[in-house]
Amino acid sequence: MAPMSVFEQIFDPAGRADPYPLYAELRATPVSRQEDGTYVVSGYDEIVALLHDPRVSSTRRNVPQPGEPGSDEATAVPPPSFINTDPPEHDRLRRLAMRHFGPPHSPRLVESLRPEMLRVITELIDGVAGRARIDVVDDVAYPFPVTMICRILGVPREDEASFHEWADAVVESLDPREEGRAERLRRRQAAVVELHRYLGGIIDERRENPGDDLLSGLVTDEGAEDPMSPVEVVATATLLLIAGHETTVNLITNGMLTLLRHPALLDRLRQEPALAVSMVEELLRYEPPVHFLSSRVALDDIEIGGTVIPKGAPIAVALAAGSRDPAHVTDPDHFDPDRRYNEHLGFGGGIHYCFGAPLARLETQIALTELARRLDNPRLVADPPPYRPSAELRGPRHLLVDVDGVTA
Amino acid sequence: MRVIVDLTRCQGYGQCAFLAPDVFTMNGQEALLYDPDTDDAQREHVLRAAAACPVQAIHLDQMATRHPGMRTGPAPPPVRAGDGSRKTGRIVIVGASLAGARAAGVLRRDGFTGSLTLIGDEPYEPYDRPPLSKQVLTGLAPEDHTLLPRLREVDAEWLSGIAATGLDLAAKRVRLADDREVPFDRLLIATGARARPWPDRQEAALDGVIPLRGMDEAALLRERLAAGPRRVLVIGAGFTGSEVASVCRALDLPVTVVERGPVPLVGALGGVIGAAAAAMQRDHGVDLRCGVTVEALEGDADGRVRAARLSDGSTVEADVAVVALGAVRNVEWLRGSGLAAGVWGVACDAGCRAFDSNGLVTDDVFVAGDVARFPHPVYNYQFMALEHWGNAVAQAEIAAHNMISDQAHRWPHLSLPVFWSNQFGTNIKSVGVPTFADEVVIAQGSLAERRFVAVYGYRGRITAAITFDQAMWLDFYQGLIERAAPFPPELPGADRAERRPVPAEVPERLEPSQVTVVVTGHDPAERRAWLLHDDR
Count of domains in chain A? Predict the structure, then answer.
């Protein structure tokens, strides 16, 4: 058997704990063609260029699939959400969703959640008091953003046990490689159908009895240009529920892991809570939750990075490799929260820039500040910790930490 | 605390408006408004917003602006062997606004240790002008909040409130209004421009007739708008006039705009996109009169403006008349100096060195900002003077660098012009020179929805792009302009709309060319223009 390519090695679970040396190898060819025809883009400049290139589509429907009807998203139910949609539909759907989440219509929503975020994180950390060993993932980093996204969307927190399984299935089906794509897609669609059924029920209920939540806003919005159809509302809700609770968990956990590996910085954060702001930006650069964007497709031949990505070719954007590109940032493998003008790809870029970025930032700033302040003498139990299977949305499955106690 | 957002970089991600909603506001989908000198109680929020900016365009308490295309990595090493002597001596900068102040900062940053003098005729510290026609007029930010960040800390002698009145090139002295003379080894001319006054002196002196360029004028206009005039008349529908009209509508004031041309913004964007601007104005309740001029302003017995008589025979009654007829370059003080200075500005080479009236390039006199008229290789080496914020900053940086570098290490000013305007809740951005065009095509989005990218072409190559609320795509088109990519661009967009070029409707004043120029490189030190000869 031929030796594994760098790209293949990145998806081998054995390399999950430290993919960064492999990313450095990838960057030697900033735009490289893989055996399966995928073009992997790993240089910072090349990534930024492609994220702002109107010839790059975000939907696999634009990959020619001769003789394979039914196996791609083109013919598949359910409909895609705005993350897998191009302008002008994308812009319209995102604008409509933004009316109930951020500026210009709801500029204060995220900021107004701060007291509740603090209350939730306080309860979660209170809950581990008296234990000598905690799991940062299960005890804090997972339940915290889930509680917040449920609150924002208006989804009952107690249903988490059921939708968690479907959301996990969706995330684990993400993979930029062509091999096994059809099978992964089948699994994803099965989970998405369940999520749609579940959220569809909640949305129907909100239509009758609207509350002050985002889903109620989507179904009752009268002031909008061309309101979302019921199907579009369900697809949007599904996207926000999955994205809102499968990514921030990784950012918070990666953050705690990084701080435990840099005890001086953990100590500094304890003394200097305002450091959390730049620290989270550096985390987004250094240990981001999203490593790849995998559904991009070239709509035309695109000359970039010394090569031509041919029309119809799938493109995998290696965001995490780009953020550590030494041509863009000095000393990229050094975790330095004091960096000035830290431009990173932690939330992607261009029109698909992370919708929930402000929420993720605030949640992670608050979580790390409170964990640093309240955990007494935290120590990593295992380094590296066990990782979740996905290389695309990468983060520890558990992060066991021994503590001497919990400060009030 | 002082805040400045480099709006040439801003792409409208809106992260700042989420995290510091009391300081940053999105006016529509992507037009950003902010208070440039915010209360210290907002500090924590502003720091969060600045950290979160995806393009790192927010600067706090300092002005380390970067122009588009410049890398975020370390600055190129400014000091090189053999140029030590250029780091000392006496540098005088005439003009203490954006370009002059920026140049002063760069000179010190890059190791100039000699004496540095800034001369400005306004009594204020250098301030930022774009907010004066936007958030200052709406009352979001007081006019004195526009002072540029942390310039006091530049080690320089500031002569404010005093105008330069003459230049003696042979003796290397600048003469001031109080007859003092300031000697220099190297001089930077950055005197900018002023608002073109209403041509009739008596009418111009009527109370309520207000040109808009400086801080005092903005303060006066804001006061008059806040007083609730029956109607505001705006004379001229360029960017300033259009922005004032937009503010009036935001304040729910009746406004009439009178424009000599067929549509607003025609001089900058051509007739096709100007028509979209006209529709936008009318949709927002502006009484827009195009193809018409104001023949006379009439005052009442107390010397206050009360009406305007138009060339179509009609009369507009208004208590405020805003004169927005463009700018006049501040070159009068250079009369008799021997420099090539006239109504068009002060001519200089691409390295910002001034030409004398014989067309000879000077060694020690540099020009930057609105007053500079320089040849741009991408535009047939046509001499152009750009009244853009981004150009003032970029050109000042090039000029400052060249003032302290020997001739082997000088940089050309090759930045493509970039500008923005914020009106009627729409963010308009531009790259390139839209009037250097024979055709225009809507490459993305829809003119009817006023969310689009318009691409301009001249003789089969792309020369400019404009976005209405689509700023995230602009850098892509900048790349096409720099590569002299063919026009019309072939973009198999997802919406598959039909994209047909139409005449751009810009004033005819172009020469044929057999040479195409491409620009490469990101850092100023690397940027180069290359000629591609067309042997057809």
Answer: 1
Contact across the interface for A86 and B495, Cβ inside 8 Å: yes
For A283-337, the pLDDT digits (tens) are: 999 999 999 998 899 999 999 989 999 999 999 999 999 999 999 999 999 999 9
- CA–CA min distance A4, chain B (Å): 34
Query: Is the N-terminal amide bond of A145 cis, ω within 30° of 0?
Result: no
Structure-block tokens of residue B352:
């910002």
Of residues A87, A110, A278, nearest to B51 (C-beta): A278
- The β-bridge relationship of strands A133-135 and A400-402 is antiparallel
Instruction: Return the CA Rg of chain B.
Output: 23
B218 and B181 share one domain = no
Here the CATH number for the domain that contains residue B268 is: 3.50.50.60
| One domain for residues B283 and B365 | no
Q: What does the alpha-carbon distance between residue B38 and residue B58 come to, in Å, rounded to a whole number?
A: 13
Provide the token pair at A202.
């909640």
Peptide bond into A386 cis (omega under 30): no
Name the H helices within B89-214: 98-109, 135-138, 201-204
Structural domain for A283, as ranges: 6-406
Instruction: Provide ipTM, 2 decimals.
Output: 0.95
Number of structural domains (chain B) is 4
- Domain span at residue B523? 431-442+457-533
- Cα A364 to Cα A38, A142, A247: the distances in Å are 33, 11, 11
Contacts of A332 in chain B (CB under 8 A): none
CB–CB contact A361 B52 (8 Å):
yes
Q: Which helix (H) or strand (E) holds A281?
A: helix A276-286
Determine the Cα–Cα distance for residues A99 and B241; give it in Å rounded to an integer. 31
**Residue located via tokens 């999950």:** A16
Instruction: Say whether B445 and A274 touch across the interface (CB within 8 A).
Output: no
Whether A398 is in a domain gets the answer yes
pLDDT over threshold 90, residue B230: yes
Same domain, B271 and B375: no
Nearest to B19 among A86, A343, A358 (CB): A358
B251 and B140 fall within a common domain: no
Give the H or E element holding residue B27. Answer: strand B24-27
Identify whether residues B190 and B333 lie together within a single domain. Answer: yes
Domain of A368, CATH number, reads 1.10.630.10
CA distances from B155 to A105, B114, B158, B215 (A): 45, 10, 9, 25
Six-digit token pair at A380?
């990593």
Token look-up 């808009």 returns: B212
In contact, B174 and B94? CB cutoff 8 Å: yes
The contacts of residue B485 (CB under 8 Å, 6+ apart) are B461, B462
Q: How far apart are CA B32 and CA A396, in angstroms?
A: 38
Which residue of chain B comes nearest to A341, CA vs CA? B56
Q: What is the pLDDT at residue B175?
A: 98
- Residues in chain A within 8 Å Cβ distance of B471: none
With beta carbons less than 8 A apart as the criterion, state whether B310 and B289 touch. yes
Identify whether A1 is part of a domain.
Answer: no
Q: Which of A48, A55, A85 to mutate against chain B (most B CBs within 10 Å)?
A: A55
d(CA B287, CA B380): 39
Which among B23, B20, B58 has a CA at the least distance from the CA of B38? B23
Is residue A331 assigned to a domain?
yes
Please name the residues in contact with B377: beta carbons below 8 A apart, sequence gap of 6 or more: B350, B412, B414, B517, B519, B529
Q: Do A54 and B443 touch (CB under 8 A)?
A: yes
Whether residues B488 and B510 fall in one domain: yes
pLDDT tens-place string over residues A349-404: 999 999 999 999 999 999 999 999 999 999 999 999 999 999 999 999 999 999 99
Four-point Cα dihedral B153, B159, B163, B168, nearest 10: -100
- Give yes or no: residues B222 and B371 share one domain: no
In a domain, A396, yes or no: yes
